[in-house]
Amino acid sequence: MDINAIKNGPGMWIASGIMVVVILVQALLYLRLSKKEADNLGIDKARQKEARRSAIIAAAGPTLALSIMLITLIASLGGPTAWMRMNDVGSGRTELAIASTVKDMVTAEAGTPEAELQELSYAVWAQGIDVAGWLIGAMVMVLAGSAVTKTLNEKLNPTWAKMLMGGCLVSLFSYLLINQVYKKAPPYLIAAIAGGITMFLMNILFKKNKRLQELALGISILVGAFCGAIAA
Amino acid sequence: MFDKKCLTLGLISMCVAVFASFCPALYLYFAYGVIPSGPDIASIASLMVAGYGVGWILQPITFYPAMGVGGSLASWTTGNVADLRMPAVSAAQKSAGVEGGTPEGTVMATMGAATSNVVTVIWLTFITFIGSVLISLLPASVKAGFSYIAPAIFGAIIVDYAMKNLKNNVPLIIAGFITYIVLKAVGMSTVWITLLVVIVGMFVSRGVFVLSNKKKPEA
Fold first, then answer.
1. Is A184 a member of any domain?
2. What are the residue ranges of helices labelled H in chain B?
3. Domain ranges of chain B
4. A218 in a structural domain
5. Is B153 in CB contact (< 8 Å) with chain A?
6. pLDDT tens digits along B136-146
């Protein structure tokens, strides 16, 4: 029994591919739904197109960064599992941690093909439970959040409700920024400052050029990451 | 109505995703007869709940006000919410010229999150099947740059928010930083810190709102 042949066999590709198909179908349906609603709200097609293009540019950098983790996972968990888990809500680091945590529970003699198969089975069960936990948690919390938001919109001053919701986004990004740089090596801070300065300059210099404004985040990421790497 | 449609689509697709999440495990059972025992599955589940349970509950609710129903459900199906979906949501809203918390902002959040999901699926599938060879050929210096993508993104976005609304957003940013540093110093876990930063931000928003209303009495 060759464990690598099982890990990378057609059966595992099909079993793992189901999740990727679900994700893609869901995303395409959400896109269709949001386009229709944007039309209803009077957001013209050109603005919708710009929004999608900006989202692609903003997602491109972090997606590229996931590639390295994907390759690490392919080497340890096999192509199909790595492909599935990097696409779904399971994060690369967590999946590796889970795989090594449950290794100790395997009962077959270490180093034997049976033990390797058991390790794989325990790992994919644990990953399945982790991903199911995220999905169920999100469904329950969004249901609760949606009820709270409805009440807020009905009872609060609309200006205040809008400010409250918009403010949450700013608070989250403040957290995300400080979490990236606080007590970290100087290149992280340099990358953040360079990214910020680039955005500042792009906003000032190209205030009237919509196309360049769309690229502002992408260019800021490149400049920031480049400066960080140079400083390292 | 839009939120209701997003909720229905999200709940159905995520329930299918819960099943899909166990497909590799079920395949190994049906094809090779290997499956952890009942008590072992219970132990694995308790381990997962102990390690990640707080995150499963707190993180979706923390990000919810910023992303709305559609944006949240699309994002939590694929993960990388903080460093990938949020920038995509924010960029989509900015480009369309809409603000978070408005009906237009919610629609654009959904569009941004869904677009980023398509980008991730296409790119990761490409890398899985073809690109792993290409990535391994990249020089180490380029790969090192990948580590600094996240701080660069967040630095740029925070500056963008500060420039967009100095009066409302700068106090929020400062409060976020201070809250983080104080809570970190007392040893609180990051999941709780995220939630508390958002809660403190809500009070700061309220303060700014009350102050600006006092300065500008209604006509």
1. yes
2. 2-21, 23-32, 38-78, 86-96, 103-126, 132-137, 140-145, 149-164, 166-185, 190-215
3. 2-140
4. yes
5. yes
6. 677 777 777 87
